[in-house]
Design goal:
By secondary structure, this protein is α/β, with parallel strands linked by helices. It has nine helices and ten strands. It has one domain: 3-Layer(aba) Sandwich (Rossmann fold). The structure holds 2-amino-2-deoxy-6-O-phosphono-alpha-D-glucopyranose.
Length: 260
């Protein structure tokens, strides 16, 4: 795992944006896996700035989001489709036809999950997957003790996740209990995973992901098996790690081509 530590979330997000910008410049028709939540907001703002001021071109990029709530239409302000439009797509030159999210209102949810996997494969797989981290170690909406080999499917949110996400809803009773999420197996097939975690509430999950055992109790820990994972942290999120000096040393001694 490549671990990049920055004092604050803003600097960490700029670094993450550089990882993505490099890919988009090197491979203009790349496939990006995207995430929602509070964590990637500054990343999307920085990518929008790079588009505006430095001509970062998204016209040939395809995107697949990790997940979507069941039962919220695209027009619902808490749907992830709405979030992506508001926080990112409207600021860049992406072709909406190339943006994919699971449809949480599909009449046949199981078929929608199978089709989503097929669409990812037909696009050639995901080049880079952005991931936030749940406070319980979830990635996408893959909650603790779920299969580490799962594929895109309908999942039931844990009570912890519903509580964490209720801050974004006017009324906590409105938080959906079901979602469609890429599975852990789907995420593990991305060629590069870019995990972002900020703030003290994530420090426990960050330590479990990087330094704990590989266990479905912390789904993100499976990334220890992934051949290419970059993890971008601010200091509060990194506070629970035991080997901080080692991660700093590694970053300081990178060869030029290993740096972003
Ligand atoms: C949500 C999303 C995840 C997200 C995570 C963290 O439940 N399904 O994709 O990464 O929880 O959210 P936040 O970034 O708001 O802390």
């Amino acid at each position: 795992m490549e671990i990049l530590l920055r004092p604050q979330a803003a600097e960490a997000s700029y670094r993450a944006a550089r990882v993505i910008a490099r890919l988009v410049r090197e491979k203009p028709a790349c496939v990006l896996g995207l995430a929602t939540g509070r964590t990637p907001v500054l990343l999307y703002r920085e990518l929008a700035r790079l588009h505006r001021e430095e001509n970062l071109d998204f016209s040939r990029v395809t995107t697949f989001n990790l997940d979507e709530y069941v039962g919220l239409p695209a027009s619902h302000p808490q749907s992830y489709r709405w979030f992506m439009e508001e926080e990112f797509f409207r600021y860049i030159n992406i072709d909406r036809k190339n943006t994919n999210l699971p449809d949480g209102c599909a009449s046949d949810l199981r078929q929608e999950c199978r089709d989503y996997e097929k669409r990812i494969s037909a696009a050639g797989g995901i080049d880079l997957q952005v991931l936030g981290l749940g406070s319980n170690g979830h990635i996408g909406f893959n909650e603790p003790t779920g299969s580490l080999g799962s594929r895109t499917w309908v999942k039931i949110l844990s009570q912890q996740t519903m509580k964490d996400n209720s801050e974004l809803f006017e009324n906590s009773a409105d938080v959906p209990r079901h979602c469609i999420t890429m599975g852990i197996g789907t995420i593990m097939e991305a060629r590069h995973c870019l995990v972002m975690a900020f703030g003290p509430k994530k420090s426990h999950a960050v330590a479990a992901m990087i330094e704990g055992p590989i266990t479905s109790m912390c789904p993100a820990s499976v990334l220890q098996f992934h051949p290419r994972t970059t993890i971008v942290l601010d200091e509060p999120a990194a506070a629970g790690l035991s080997n901080l000096e080692h991660y700093r040393w590694i970053e300081q001694n990178k060869l030029d081509w290993q740096k972003y």
